[in-house]
Amino acid sequence: MSLHPPPETSYPYPPPEKEKSIPYPAQPQTTSTTTAHSRSPSPAPAYATSRTLHIYSSSSWSTRHITIADADRSHPLYTLTKNHGGLFSSKPHMTVTSAQTPALVVGTATFHSMSRRVELEFHGQGVIFEPEGLFTRSHGYRSPSSGGERLKWKCEGWGHDLVLVNSRKEWIAKFDAAVWAMKKLGKLEIRDGGIVGQALDEIVVSGLAMVELERRRRNSSSASAGSGGSGGGGC
Fold first, then answer.
1. Of 62-66, 129-133, 170-174, which gets the smallest average pLDDT?
2. Is 18 helix (H, G, I), strand (E, B) or coil?
3. Beta bridge partners of 80
């Protein structure tokens, strides 16, 4: 047996170069459990910062005069005045004016003792605020500032909170009641803080009308329960 190494192979052309090793940084090994849907989330709608209005009564025992203040709570935006003169009181029963210009009537609401329909006015333009169903705690109207789109206020859960939604069931505004407060009635959160002008006026007037509707319903339910009726439930 020959112990000499075999002769080198002769190539008729230059021998192939060995593959060079490129020093890439080591990558950590991870195990992903994310699904395809969560890897590509749908972009959220582009809204401006939400805006919160605060609603206060002039006294702890009466809601006849109400102030709606801006987010800083020190700048009144609207003033609401109720007429509690009974069934034969002058109409409208609820008037909302501009806090900066008291003579400017932003909107009104007229209620009916034998009907759940409410007559609203936004800057003099009348719309019908009517129940969405026989046994529902929701009311809707055709919004003049939204080209006639139907908007709906409805109860949320079993408390006193309310939410305004559009025809696509997207929420526009929410009313959170301050149940245990003395003078504060609640706060109104506007999803899109860029809403101003008549669109904001509509939200405020219709929202306050819905709050008043719920107050009347609870009073009626309490009266029925006191006289042996069944009483009312939540939203």
1. 62-66
2. coil
3. 66, 96
